[in-house]
Amino acid sequence: KIIGDGAFYSCVKLKEFSFPSDSNLKSIGNGAFQNCISLNNMKLEKVEYISELTFYSCSSLTEINIPGTVRVVNDQSFEACEQLKKVTLNDGVEIIGERCFYDCLNLEQVILPKTLKEIYPHAFDGCINLLDINIHKESVKIGDFAFGNCPKLSH
Fold first, then answer.
1. Which of 23, 70, 102, 106 could disulfide-pair with 79, CB 3.0 to 4.6 Å?
2. What is the pLDDT of residues 61-82, one digit of tens each?
3. How far apart are CA 104 and CA 122, in angstroms?
C-alpha cells in the first residue's frame, strides 16, 4: 500500500516504474524516487498521496498524468524534472504544492482540473517554456510567484 520515504532514492539506472491497475498502492513517500535521473516512464493509477520531493530531479521524465484520486500534489514533488514537457492533473486534484514544478525547464503544457482550489507559491516558477495555462474558475487561490519566471506564458 505504501512506497516508503527514499525507497528508490538515487537509483540512477531505474528507467520505468508502474503499478498494476488492480494494485492497492495508496501513498508514495518523501523522496521515494528522488534523483532517479533515468526514470522516464511512471504510471500512477489509483495513487492517493504523493509526498514532498517524491520525483525531485527525475530529469528524464517527459510526461506525467496525476490521477484524480490525488487531492494534493505536495511541495517540490516534481521540482527540477528538467525534461518534463506535459503535466495532466485530473479532476479531483485540489492543491498544487509549493515549488511543485519549480524549474521544470522544458514544461510546455499543463492541463489543470476543474476541481483545483489552490496553487501554492512558486509552484511553476522557473518553467521558462510554459506557454499557456487554463484556470477553470475565478475562485482558485494563486500564491506568490506561482508563475514567476515563465517568460513565454501568454494565456
1. 102
2. 999 999 999 999 999 999 999 9
3. 12
- Integer Cα distance of 137 and 48 in angstroms: 24
Cα 31 to chain centroid distance, Å, stands at 13
- C-alpha–C-alpha distance, residues 66 and 74, integer Å: 12
Enumerate residues 6+ apart whose C-beta is below 8 A from 23. 45, 46
Digit-coded pLDDT (tens) for 28-59: 999 999 999 999 988 888 899 999 999 999 99
pTM of the entire structure?
A: 0.95
Contacts of 138 (CB under 8 A, 6+ apart): none
